[in-house]
Predict the structure of DUF1345 domain-containing protein.
Amino acid sequence: MAPGDRAESRAAAPPDPPRDTRPEADDAPAVQGDNAGPAEGNAPRTDPESAALWPADLTVLIGILLGLALPEEVTIGAWWLVPSAETLLLLGLVASSPRRPSQIDRRRRIRIGLVGLVSGINVVVLLLLAERLVQRAGLDGRSLLVGAGALWLIAVLLFAVWFWELDRGGAVARAYQEEDPVDFLFPQMTEPGAAPPGWRPEFLDYLYLSLTNAASFGPGETTPLTRRAKVLMGLQALASLMTMTIVLAYAINNLG
């Protein structure tokens, strides 16, 4: 081929298409950390253990059974009326347990309302107990001490449910990682090496928090961060202090 023909052939050839410099799918950088989305179907990541709701329901049931130990003089109506009503509330708690993110807000409000109603009943019983002590009306020492002890334990159990239900939006929200701001700062969250990576508080941690707050009238190793957490812990401390005052007043009046 003549030199002129080769030049014409090169001139007529179409230009090479631009090269695609984007990386292949296999070469794309991997996204790591908590911001990585789910791998399949955008399904929410769950932690079945942290989403378990039965510990709180069992705790409410134990609180109802402890209510049977209250003296009849401080019960509202017949002795069986309040435990029966609270049992119905417990069934409502179980039925309203949220299992999907779309159910969290509505059913969580129902659960909080039911726990609040049970708590309100026990506050009324505590006030009745204090009134009987002041009036010395038909309440012997043994009944008073048993009633005060039962109320103290019931308060510990119910406030554990309160703490567990309100912290960062509740157990289901924590499991689906759709969390509100942290309400309670546990030591494992701030001390490196104090807990395995990804540690999250479970119901037993909130029960221990409630027990120490009721026994010492203030926070221990766990710090309340939000106003609602501080209000709850303050109310529990006041209820515990009032119960202890009733017992001490009886001891002073009868043993002093």
In short: The longest strand covers residues 184-185.
